[in-house]
Each structure stands twice: as structure tokens, then as C-alpha cells.
From TrEMBL:
Residues 626-697, 734-764, 1196-1230 are annotated as: Disordered. One of its GO terms (molecular function) is single-stranded DNA binding. This is DNA replication primase. PROSITE patterns: TOPRIM. CDD domains: TOPRIM_primases (cd01029). Residues 746-764 have a biased composition (Low complexity).
Length: 1230
């Protein structure tokens, strides 16, 4: 296989070809029209692809703008057509979320006992690959929906952007348009010289793109003369940005003015393929910068229009804060317990004395402003997101002040703009127009917004007032605020909708029983009975709501935890935590067992819904439902990072709301924080204790980290934090073990470094390492930071500005990325992103970085299929290739680290060799144990007296050595090696299903039909694939034959028997799968049989059938693999439509039927499939058993004659050689 080119080279080469042809994405003109109509987008996320991904997808020449992954298509009921090739895209991850740890390395928990998360900016970003398919390659996608009518004028938007930018723009005679960096100004031709306003604004925005490169803005390198390579590179950025902006605004794209740069663009991409990646990234920055001016313009207009309104709102919000603080329904009294001051005093001391001083006067920003202004009161930053007491206090207080501000603002709006409704007809007319209608109750006088037409009819006209309809933006904000309230019954119904109707009924009834149990209306046994009746499982009465899924497997006759045993799970069990479990009692109760993890996850979701719906407190119920939704999103393979993040934030908001409305929880949290503050204040300021360093191999870092180990960036080593029990870390103690090979040199503890340390090591040890996020690397580099390739970290250079680098010292960076991955770990992560299996299986511990080809399962693949391929090597710069044959993903990978030294490479290879040897030993033990188990099983079997269902179906008689069960239903065929040892057994069910003993040795093993002694006496070795063929041949020839079980085992069996009986001629009686040549393009039966015969110098023979039995009729249209795949796709599509899974559009059904094979073609294929081996020849061919005897007998006679001639020839050659080597007597002279 030829090495595949890296992604960036593939993209660059395609673009070079298109540039030469004038068809590159940014070279194609677009007419003005609908916005967002050309750039590729993902219909699942609703977002467009950006940067190089957008360019690469557009370069594919598809007319459909929709691109999605295989799974995303399947999730909407569509199907990627078989044979279609996907297009790769790549994503970079610059941050990740991890558990927050305390000084002892333990996870920090919130008030609910859940780990607190924190975001870490990555110093070494990670790249992920995906394969997407275009809408034209997918069956079952709904047709493209027409775009919503544009509600703005594209030209007006462009004009707003130009004005808001503040750019200096002059118009001059002539046809030149340019940006001059020296004066920071844009020159354009007069407007009248352009054929349309769209062309004018497209040109103006192109030059505005150049204008963004000024040092005071995006700071690109613009100091290049016209016609230079640097000038052309800047033009490329502006042109791609023009294409993106033109699509965003709907003003079109005219590339005609920039054809002169094509040659320079081609040269730039040929010299440096990554240039187009950088250009696309810069173009996205230009797009974002330019479009930001539109928002700025809107804000300026809003500011002018609402200045008077703000004054009115400010006056309405000039209400003392006591109105909120004295509310008896809300308590913030524990603030004083923690801060030592009353909340009111704390607010007034900071000038926050009125509602408006806290919320501001913008109704759309009431909560956001209150959130920021209240942060200092609680001693936290506005960006603080840890779910601690201060966070919850700030959130709750901000929400209360925002609620009060909204009430005051509404009253002001009604007073200033409200209109009294005069009649029911007037009310309904205003409702139809989208106006907001408010009702006033006599008892409290507070306005209440009417939410439905039915509710509107409940009020008299004199109780109603109307306000103008909200703008689209205001409505969106209102919806967002509405979503922050606890989930309604409709939201719960949305979660239930994913379950069958009978399951939903069971959930609701079990939830009702849970509420009755909490109210004391039923006892625990009644609750358990109710869950068993309605859910099919029994929950403990004291269930805490927590569930756990455990993968299990059978080992040595016992069910064990698969994860702890290090084996693949065979089933899954669900457990429920008991809240009242006593000491020494198992805290988890078994609930149910399932065959698959998906079934277990579906069950746990139903049970979590029972827990949520069984909770009376609406805030607690909302939090539980939010957890269910978050878990569902996390499990969804089509969920994006944005989806997961949104679900997580919704869950955090719901939990915070529940916390704020749980006075007991608030008191507990305040007490815990007070105790912690007192403990810290009382702790003596002792000297920093000496650290205990440990040698932790990279692959074990997560284990060490979970136990509390921390990473010391300076020493490049893990250590045990002071106060942490060192016993669990004993195996990593200094000198206890040799660390596994890592891409950095092992760093000994400071005290372990002797004077013999090399100068280079001393220099490295003295380095002051920094925690620099990737996006800040240029700033650190400018301040003098240097990059350490071995440690994969920045450090303070000898000429650095230490003051500027101070902020990146580890002690000043709260959240840091852990140590760098090894090349193998990098490669494994790339494999997982492509959907390939990593970890241990029968073939080894993947990835195996030995430069050889390896096959592994893929995500979503069929059981036993190895659709994943990879090659990884460590020579020079570690690199490799990854292919997912199911999705079409094809990745060329290179390590983001550095080249391994010879010593590191040798150690890693030695470790890999040791693992392979260990695995071989383990496999030998497992196979030996299976052989003994199978041997014992033979004692429970009996010889076959009457043909089993399988033998009857094949029309063969029972032979000695084949066994059955006492019911005579199943067929058991022992398999031996050439020495006669039984290693495994083939089990054949009544329906013909076959399998072998688990963990058994099959390669090179066979079944001798007639026995080993009879085989030794046979004149020739006749080897067939299956037992039925071998038994049929044995009946025909009258002596023992061999069954190799399948075509893949033919060669191994032939070699083993040839070594055992070197003088016996060998015949491979193969299967002739001619039908597979037409449907799949190959004939595995014939190919494997011929290869086996060639390997031992034997002869391969195949059954010859009567005319038309194993040949395709000439008068029928030919069948090809492509036409067969088309037939299968159409057949499946029609079946899905019949089952109601998909809906066919228009004449699609007729087209599908027309693409299918005819009945005559299918019948011809079926006939060929029934005539492939010698058993078929005996029972399905008109030639019958006599045909088998003639063909096999002739073959045996021929190989015997050939063998006799061969032996005679060897004898003659040997005799001739003896004569030639006999010494000759010298002749006498004289």
C-alpha cells in the first residue's frame, strides 16, 4: 500500500488543480440572492463549516450545501449509499474540562457531592478527524427547504458595516480599488462606475478585509509590494473572506478582479501546502471582525433611540434594595455567617442602594448586569463558575433583583405605553397581532401576562391592558429567560417521548408510587411491588436515586466485574444505591441484567425518570430532569461539543436553582465553608514541605491522579501531596520500578541527583517551566519563552523578560494541562476519533507501533468484523495511517511531539515484544484450558446412531468420531492437530448454525473423517472445507478424508498434514463460489483452495456441474458488484418504506424498483449458490453421487500417477548423482 499523503497536502493539491482550471471555491462567481446559500453547513447542528473545512468541502463540487457524518444521517432516518466515499474534515480542541482538585490532589465536591469541573486551556491542542458525506450521497434526506424570506436589505447591511467600521473611504475617478497601509485608508472608484450596488459593496468589503490587517486591528503582515508573493498571500486571505462575507450578507461574490494572482497562489500552495490552511483561518478572523461592526451599528442606533426610555426605566428602578432583601419568601441570612457582615451593609458599602444600581437599565441585561455587579460582594470574579456557596448566593440574589427589575419595568411600560382594551373583539384582534396582553387581578393589582387565547377569554375587557409586540431579538431573549425556569410538564413529556407508550405508562405509575411512599401513603413493600409490576424490575424502598451500570463476564464459572478482570463484558447489570444501608451491608441492590450496554442505559434512563417524576419539589424535579437530559445528550453519538456544553450548563442552572430553594442545603453549605475558612486561618504557616516524587508511567497517570498524585512541571515528575497517604503510591516510589518508556527522560527527585549528573541534564533541571495556553504562545515567545521539545512545555529563556512571563508560572495558573502524551497515546487518540478500537483483544494491545499492518473492529461495525486498519511506526518522527472502511475515514497521522531517540525506541520496542510474548503465553494457557474443557465435555456426548437434523439436511451418513447430545439434535465435530490432540470442537445447531468453543485453537486443526488411523492408511490426503463435503467425498472414494472447517484454514491444515505425511499426495477439494464473483468481485473458495494446494505442491479440484447448474445464463443482463449493491440498497429502501421507517418522495419507488435485478436474475443467482461444493454435486445436481466418484476418483488416480513418476524421477536422479560422485581409478602408463 502506498503511503497516503497528509490531509493538508491532499487539500492543497486539489486546490492547485482547481486554481489552474479556474474552479477553486473562491474563484467561482455568485450572484446576489439568499444569504447563507452556498457555504457548506451541517443540518444536524445548523452551523456552517469554517476555515479550511469549508474550503475543502466546497472544492468537492457538490450542489447540495448539506454535509453530515454517517451517524448523523442514520439518526434522521437517512442512509449513506453503499460505496460512497466520505470527505475528511478536521477539528482542533484548544480547551477541555477536568475535575478540580484541592491541595491534596483530591476532587473538589460541590454541595451535592458531585465533582466540581474547571476548564483548562491546552498548551498542546488536540486534533480530531471526522468523515462527512454530502446530501447528494445520502438516501432519505428530506429535500432542501426554501430559505426563509430575507427580512433585511443586503445592501443596507453592507452600508451599515462600512459606516460602523469608521474606515476612511474615498472615491476617485478610475477603476482602481485598493487599501493603502501607509495612510490606513481605502480608495474606491465612484459608485456610478459599478454595474450594481451589490458589486460596489462586494468590492468595498473586500478592501475592508485588507483594512482589518492594520497593526491596530488584526495585525497581519501587509508590508509587501504589488506583485510580490507576500502581496498575493494577503490577497488570498481577503478573497476567501469576501466569499464568506458575501454569502453571509447575500450580496454575491465577484472574483474577476483577482485573476492576476492565480499564478502566485499556485506557487504559494506548491511551496507550502499549509498556506491555504493559514489563509482560511485568517479569512474567518476577517469575517468575524467585519461582521462585528454590524452589531456595533445596531447598538449605536439602539442607544440613540432608547436614551429617553433608559431615563424612564432608571426612574422606575430607583427603588430601595430593601424591597428585595426584606422579601419573606427569600432568605440570604447565611451570608452573614460566612462573610461576617450583613448582606444589606455589604451592598450599600459598594454603592448598590437601589434595584437599578444593581441591574442596570437595559431590560435585556437585568440578570447579566446584576450577576457582574454582585460578584465583588461575594469575593469572586464574574467568570467564576465553580458551584460553591458564593456562586449559588450570587446567582440567587442576581435572579431576585432581576425579577424585581422586570416587575418594575413592566409597570413603567404599562403606565407609559399600555393601552386599555375596550372590548373582547379588541382583545382578540390585539392577540392576533402578537401584542402582549396583561391582566390585573382585583385582589393584588399585580399584572399577569396572558399566555393563551383560552385564558384571555376568562377576563373582562376592563381587566386587560396591551403592550406592543416584542421584536424578534426581544422575543428570543424572553424565550431564553423562560428556559431558565424549572422544566414544565411539557419538558418532562419531551424526555418521555423517546420511550414506547407502555414504558411511559409504567414510568408514570412507578413515579406515582414513589410519591406515595414519600408521603407515607404506602409502605416499602408496596413500592417494591409497584415497581416490579409497572417496570418489570424491583427497586429498593430506600432507593437514593443513584444507579450504577456494571459490565460483567463469565470467568472460571463465575460472574465477575469485566473491568476489574480486564476482559470484555458479556452482559451488563444495573444496581440501585440504598440510602439506608448499614455498615457492612452492601450499599447497592441488584435491579436487572441486560445483554447490551445500550439496553442497560435505556433502563437507567427510565428509572431516573421515575426518580424525577416521583419528586414533588419542582426545583429538585427540574434538576433531576436536567441530569437525565444531559446524560442522554452525552450518549448521543451525533451530539456536538456545543450540544453537550449546553446540556451541562442547563443542568448546572437547574441544580443551582434547586440548591437556592433548599434552605437546609444552604445552611449546610454555609457551615462547611465557615469551617473550612476557620481551618485555613488556624493552620500555621509552616515551610513548604519537601515533596515525595514518584515514577509514574504515562499509561498509569490516570490511576495515580485518581489517588491524589499531582504533577510538578519544574521537576517533570508526579509527586504525593503533603498530607496524603503514601501507601497507595508504593509501586511508583523512587527506585521501586523502572518507569515505562516515555517521550521524555525520567526526572529523578532533586535529592536523588548526584554530582555525576550531566551538564545537559543540569541545564534542563534548572529550567523554569511555564503553563502557556496554545493561543497565548506568541505572546510568551515574544517575552522570551522558549520551547522544550522533550518536556513539551515552554520555559523561561536566558534573555526573557521575567516580569512579563510571571503570569504563566505554574503557581499563577489555576488550571493546567497534564504531562504530554507519548506518540503511542497520540496515535491511540487519533484511532479513537476515527472510530477504531483501541485496547487489548486476541491480536494484541492496540495500537501496536511496529510498522506492520493491523486490523481491528470499528465503532458500529458487525460483530467479529475487522473494518479498521492501521499502521503505526516509531522510526524517526513517529507517524502512521488510520483507515475506517465502514465510514471511509482515511487519516495520515504524525506525532505532534518529536522524534524518539534510539534508546527510547529500543525500550518501547522491547516493551512491545515483551507484551506480545506475554500475550502468546496467556493465549497458550487459555487454549490448553479450553482443550481440557472440551475433552471433558466429550464424556457427556454420545456417538451418532441416527442422523442429526444437520446430517439429514446434507444427506450424509453418520461417520465414526462425530458426536451428538443425548437428544440427538446437535452435531459435535471434534478438531485435532496433526499429532492427534483434540483442541476444539465445532458445534452445529439444528438449524445449521455453526460455532467453535470459545478461546480455542482452530488454526491448523481438522477433523479426520474415518479417524486418524484410517487417514494414515489412505492413498492420498483429500482436504475439503466443511464436514459435509469431506464426509460426502469419503463415501465416494471409500477412504478417510479431512475437513478443515473453512477456506481460511485450508492452507494451515495442508501444511500440517504435509509435514506429517510428506510422501502422500494432497488434493484440495475446494468450493467454487462463482456467484460471488458477480456479487462481490471475488471467489474466496477457489482462491483459498488454489493457494493451499500451491503451498504444499498439491492439486486443487472443484466440482463440475451439469450445464446451467453453476453458470449464469448468457441471455440475461450481466450482474456486477455495483448492480448488486444497487439492488440491495433499493430493496432495503423499499422495505423501510413498507415498514413506515421512511417516506418515499414522488416517483422514488418506481425508480428504486427499476434499479433492482429482475426475477430471472435473482433465480439464476440462487441456482448458482446451491451448486458450489461436492456435497451439492451429490445431492442437488443431476450428475449425483456418481459424478462425485468419477471426478474425485480421477483426481486421486492422477495425483497418484504424478507422485509415482515423481518418486521414480527422484530415484533416477539419486542414482545418477551417486555415479557422478563415485571416485574414478587412474589409468596406468607404460
Amino acid at each position: 500500500m502506498e503511503p497516503k499523503k497528509p490531509f493538508h497536502e491532499v487539500v492543497a493539491e486539489k486546490l492547485i488543480e482547481q486554481l489552474k482550471a479556474g474552479t477553486a471555491p473562491w474563484q467561482k462567481p455568485w450572484e446576489p440572492g439568499e444569504p447563507n446559500a452556498y457555504l457548506p453547513m451541517n443540518p444536524t447542528t445548523g452551523k456552517r463549516y469554517k476555515g479550511i473545512n469549508a474550503i475543502h468541502l466546497m472544492a468537492q463540487g457538490r450542489s447540495d450545501a448539506r454535509w453530515m457524518t454517517y451517524k448523523q444521517a442514520a439518526a434522521v432516518g437517512a442512509q449513506v449509499r453503499k460505496g460512497e466515499k466520505g470527505t475528511p474534515v478536521q477539528y482542533w480542541k484548544f480547551s477541555e474540562e477536568q475535575d478540580k482538585l484541592d491541595d491534596s490532589g483530591r476532587p473538589v465536591l460541590d454541595a451535592k457531592g458531585q465533582p466540581v469541573k474547571e476548564t483548562v486551556m491546552l498548551e498542546r491542542p488536540r486534533v480530531f478527524f471526522a468523515t462527512v458525506f454530502n446530501g447528494e450521497q445520502i438516501d432519505g434526506l428530506p429535500p432542501l427547504q426554501p430559505k426563509k424570506e430575507q427580512t433585511w436589505n443586503a445592501v443596507e447591511r453592507a452600508e451599515h458595516i462600512l459606516k460602523a467600521s469608521g474606515a476612511t473611504i474615498t472615491h476617485a475617478a478610475g477603476d482602481r480599488a485598493f487599501y493603502r497601509p501607509s495612510t490606513d485608508s481605502i480608495t474606491l472608484p465612484e459608485r456610478g462606475q459599478f454595474p450594481s450596488s451589490d458589486r460596489y459593496y462586494a468590492t468595498a468589503l473586500h478592501e475592508l478585509g485588507h483594512w482589518t490587517g492594520h497593526a491596530s486591528r488584526l495585525d497581519r503582515d501587509l508590508a509587501h509590494p504589488f506583485g510580490s508573493e507576500g502581496y498575493a498571500k494577503e490577497e488570498l486571505r481577503a478573497e476567501i473572506a469576501s466569499m464568506i462575507v458575501g454569502d453571509e450578507l447575500g450580496i454575491g461574490h465577484d472574483p474577476g478582479q483577482h485573476a492576476a494572482y492565480v499564478g502566485s497562489w499556485i506557487k504559494a500552495l506548491q511551496d507550502e501546502p499549509l498556506e491555504v490552511f493559514r489563509a482560511a483561518a485568517d479569512a474567518e478572523k476577517i469575517h468575524d471582525y467585519v461582521l462585528a461592526f454590524e452589531q456595533k451599528q445596531v447598538q449605536e442606533q439602539d442607544q440613540q433611540q432608547s436614551q429617553a426610555q433608559d431615563e424612564a426605566v432608571a426612574q422606575a428602578l430607583a427603588v430601595d434594595i430593601a424591597e428585595v432583601l426584606d422579601n419573606p419568601d427569600v432568605s440570604f441570612s447565611h451570608y452573614q455567617a460566612f462573610q461576617g457582615d450583613t448582606l444589606e451593609d455589604a451592598l450599600r458599602s459598594r454603592g448598590l442602594e437601589t434595584v437599578g444600581s444593581i441591574t442596570g437599565t437595559d431590560p435585556e441585561q437585568f440578570y447579566a448586569v446584576a450577576h457582574d455587579r454582585l460578584s465583588p460582594v461575594f469575593g469572586i470574579d464574574p467568570s467564576h463558575t465553580d458551584t460553591d456557596n458564593a456562586y449559588l448566593e450570587r446567582k440567587g440574589l442576581a435572579q431576585e433583583f432581576a425579577n424585581m427589575a422586570e416587575q418594575l419595568h413592566l409597570a413603567q411600560q404599562l403606565q407609559q405605553h399600555g393601552e386599555q382594551i375596550v372590548s373582547s373583539i379588541d382583545a382578540e384582534a390585539r392577540w392576533s397581532d402578537g401584542q402582549r396582553i396583561f391582566a390585573f387581578h382585583d385582589q393584588d393589582g399585580e399584572p399577569h401576562q396572558v399566555r393563551s387565547l383560552d385564558e384571555l377569554n376568562n377576563y373582562a375587557p376592563d381587566q386587560l391592558m396591551a403592550l406592543p409586540a416584542l421584536t424578534q431579538q426581544q422575543a428570543a431573549v424572553a424565550d431564553q429567560e423562560a428556559n431558565m425556569t424549572p422544566p414544565t410538564n411539557d419538558q418532562a413529556a419531551a424526555l418521555l417521548a423517546a420511550h414506547p407508550a407502555d414504558a411511559v405508562q409504567g414510568i408514570e405509575q412507578a413515579a406515582a408510587a414513589r410519591r406515595q411512599l414519600a408521603a407515607g401513603e404506602i409502605d416499602g413493600q408496596a413500592f417494591a411491588d409497584a415497581t416490579r409490576q409497572h417496570l418489570g424490575v424491583e427497586l429498593p424502598p430506600d432507593w437514593s436515586g443513584e444507579l450504577r451500570i456494571v459490565g460483567v463476564a463469565e470467568q472460571d464459572g463465575q460472574t465477575v466485574d469485566a473491568a476489574q478482570a480486564g476482559i470484555e463484558p458479556q452482559a451488563f447489570q444495573v444496581y440501585a444505591r440504598k440510602a439506608d444501608a448499614q455498615f457492612g451491608e452492601d450499599a447497592f441492590a441488584f435491579v436487572a441484567g441486560t445483554r447490551t450496554e445500550g439496553q442497560a442505559e435505556a433502563l437507567t434512563e427510565r428509572l431516573h425518570l421515575v426518580d424525577a417524576l416521583g419528586t414533588d419539589n419542582q426545583h429538585e424535579r427540574a434538576a433531576k430532569l436536567a441530569r437525565v437530559q444531559e446524560e442522554r445528550v452525552r450518549r448521543d453519538p451525533n451530539a456536538t461539543e456545543e450540544d453537550i456544553s449546553a446540556a451541562k450548563e442547563a443542568r448546572k442552572t437547574a441544580e443551582a436553582s434547586a440548591m437556592l430553594n433548599d434552605s437546609d442545603a444552604q445552611r449546610r453549605a454555609a457551615e462547611l465553608e465557615r469551617q473550612e475558612r476557620e481551618r485555613q486561618q488556624a493552620q500555621p504557616q509552616a515551610e513548604k514541605p519537601e515533596r515525595q516524587y514518584i515514577n509514574v508511567p504515562y499509561k498509569e497517570k490516570d490511576e495515580a491522579k485518581s489517588l491524589g498524585a499531582r504533577w510538578d512541571r519544574q521537576q517533570q515528575s508526579w509527586y504525593v501531596p503533603p498530607g496524603t497517604d503514601a501507601a497507595p503510591f508504593a509501586k511508583w516510589a523512587q527506585g521501586a520500578a523502572t518507569a515505562a518508556v516515555e517521550p521524555r527522560s525520567a526526572q529523578p527527585a532533586p535529592e536523588a541527583q548526584g554530582e555525576a549528573q550531566k551538564p545537559a541534564q543540569q541545564a534542563q533541571q534548572a529550567r523554569q517551566y511555564l503553563a502557556v495556553p496554545y493561543e497565548q504562545r506568541n505572546a510568551a515567545k515574544a517575552a522570551g519563552a522558549l520551547w522544550d521539545k522533550a518536556a513539551k512545555s515552554w520555559y523561561v529563556g536566558p534573555r526573557a523578560d521575567a516580569a512579563k512571563l510571571e503570569r504563566w508560572k505554574p503557581e499563577n495558573v489555576q488550571a493546567q494541562q497534564g504531562p504530554a502524551m507519548t506518540p503511542r497515546e497520540e496515535f491511540a487518540e487519533a484511532m479513537r476519533s476515527a472510530g477504531l478500537f483501541t485496547g487489548s483483544n486476541a491480536q494484541g494491545d492496540h495500537p501496536i507501533m511496529d510498522g506492520k499492518r493491523h486490523r481491528v473492529p470499528v465503532e458500529g461495525g458487525k460483530k467479529g468484523a475487522l473494518d479498521g486498519f492501521y499502521v503505526g511506526h516509531l522510526d524517526g518522527h513517529p507517524a502512521g495511517r488510520i483507515i475506517n472502511n465502514k465510514t471511509g475515514t482515511d487519516i495520515t497521522w504524525k506525532s505532534k511531539g518529536y522524534a524518539l531517540s534510539d534508546q527510547e525506541k529500543a525500550k518501547l520496542q522491547a516493551e512491545a515484544a515483551e507484551k506480545l510474548a506475554q500475550r502468546a503465553v496467556e493465549q497458550d494457557k487459555a487454549q490448553e484450558a479450553t482443550a481440557q474443557r472440551v475433552g471433558r465435555q466429550m464424556a457427556d456426548l454420545v456417538p451418532i446412531e441416527q442422523p442429526t437434523p444437520y446430517l439429514q439436511a446434507k444427506g450424509i451418513q453418520a461417520q465414526a468420531g462425530v458426536m451428538t447430545d443425548r437428544e440427538g439434535q446437535k452435531t459435535y465435530i471434534p478438531a485435532f492437530d496433526a499429532e492427534g490432540k483434540q483442541w476444539t470442537m465445532q458445534y452445529i445447531q439444528e438449524d445449521g448454525t455453526k460455532r467453535f468453543a470459545k478461546d480455542s485453537k482452530k488454526e491448523g486443526c481438522f477433523h479426520p473423517v474415518g479417524g486418524m488411523d484410517a487417514l494414515a492408511a489412505a492413498p492420498a490426503l483429500v482436504i475439503s472445507e466443511g464436514y459435509a463435503t469431506a464426509a460426502q467425498v469419503a463415501e465416494a472414494v471409500g477412504h478417510a478424508t479431512v475437513a478443515a472447517f473453512d477456506s481460511g484454514n485450508l492452507e494451515a491444515v495442508a501444511k500440517a498434514l504435509h509435514a506429517k505425511f510428506p510422501d502422500k499426495p494432497i488434493i484440495i477439494a475446494g468450493d467454487d463460489d462463482r456467484h460471488l464473483v458477480m456479487t462481490h468481485g471475488n471467489n474466496p473458495g477457489r482462491e483459498k483452495a488454489e493457494a493451499a494446494a500451491q503451498a504444499v505442491g498439491g492439486k486443487a479440484i472443484f466440482p463440475i456441474f451439469a450445464p446451467a447448474e453453476n453458470t449464469y445464463p448468457r441471455d440475461l443482463p450481466a450482474i456486477t458488484p455495483d448492480s448488486f449493491k444497487t439492488h440491495l440498497r433499493a430493496e432495503q429502501r423499499l422495505a423501510d418504506a413498507a415498514a413506515g421507517k421512511v417516506e418515499l418522495a414522488g416517483d422514488e419507488a418506481a425508480k428504486l424498483k427499476a434499479s433492482m435485478l429482475s426475477g430471472a436474475q435473482i433465480a439464476a443467482l440462487s441456482t448458482m449458490k446451491q451448486h458450489t461444493d461436492f456435497n451439492d454435486l451429490a445431492h442437488k445436481s443431476e450428475l449425483g453421487i456418481e459424478g462425485v466418484k468419477r471426478q474425485i476418483g480421477a483426481a486421486i488416480s492422477q495425483v497418484q500417477r504424478d507422485e509415482q513418476q515423481h518418486q521414480e524421477q527422484k530415484h533416477v536422479e539419486k542414482k545418477q548423482q551417486q555415479i557422478e560422485q563415485r571416485p574414478r581409478r587412474a589409468a596406468r602408463i607404460g
